[in-house]
Amino acid sequence: MSLVVDIRKTFASAERHFSLRVSFSSTAQRIVLFGPSGAGKSLTLQAIAGLLAPDEGAIALGGDTLFDAARRIDVPTQARRVAYLFQDYALFPHLNVRQNIAFGLTPGWRNPRAKVLPPEVAHWLRAFDLETLAGHYPAQLSGGQKQRVALARALVARPRILLLDEPFSALDGALRVRMRHELAELQTRLDIPMVMITHDPDDVAAFGDHVVFLHEGRVQPETPQTAWTGRIA
To answer: Which residues contact 186 (CB under 8 A, 6 or more apart)?
Structure first.
């Protein structure tokens, strides 16, 4: 599936002025936005998701326009059918695993019922080996379990693309390696395109079919190897 991003956004405050100028296109199944903190990676991902409206430019997915400033097109986030996995997973602490996954099926903010098990939720509980944890709450889960719940919630609505914001940064080294492997297998099995943002070269090596290197809000022409030994500490 093709993804075309050509956007511009300016942020100005008394403390900082930041200009985002990002343009790239890809048909790769695994796209990595790579660069240091503050490079504009999260802002770009938010724009694709519809959580941030650029000042100028356009975004298209699979030939469908998601955003076009000139034509005043801004498709609402839910209608874009994109799944967004936040860096901290953003699980609802007062909802159990079953409810957190089911929340992806529920329009609006009404909480799913605690003991109701829609067939789509049952499917992802099995797929991620979470059936025995269905009644647990986020505080009772490990980091890897939280990530699997967040992925299940993101995928239950059958998105067209998966957006991941530093998905392994909260995990320790050994778990990070395992979850990279699990995510790679899952993405291959589901055949769903994904865009991941990271500043970790290991993520680039695992998922970088197409790498977009960002620095100070701009796409850079350098290869990731050059960036790893230069700007990324």
So the answer is: 151
- Position 232 scores a pLDDT of 38
Specify the pTM.
0.84
Instruction: Please list, in sequence order, all residues whose beta carbon lies within 8 angstroms of the beta carbon of residue 132, skipping any fewer than 6 positions away.
Output: none
Token digits of residue 220: 């850079």
Q: Are 48 and 66 in contact (CB under 8 A)?
A: yes
Secondary structure class of 195 (helix, strand, coil)? strand
Question: Is residue 66 a contact partner of residue 4, using CB atoms and an 8 Å limit?
Answer: no
Phi, psi of 194 (to 5 degrees): -145, 150
Tell which residue, 24, 6, 39, 148, has the closest CA to residue 85: 148
Query: What sign does the dihedral 8-11-12-15 (CA atoms) show?
Result: negative
Rounded to whole angstroms, the Cα distance separating 37 from 48 reads 19
Cα–Cα dist 173/109, whole Å? 35
For residue 196, give the 3-state DSSP assignment. strand
Q: Which residues of the chain have pLDDT under 70?
A: 106-110, 222-233
* Secondary structure class of 151 (helix, strand, coil): helix
d(CA 174, CA 61): 35
Residue labelled with tokens 């390696």: 177
d(CA 153, CA 121): 8
191 touches 171 (CB < 8 A): no
Distance between CA atoms of residues 89 and 163, nearest Å: 12
* DSSP label of 141: S
Single-letter residue type at 164: L
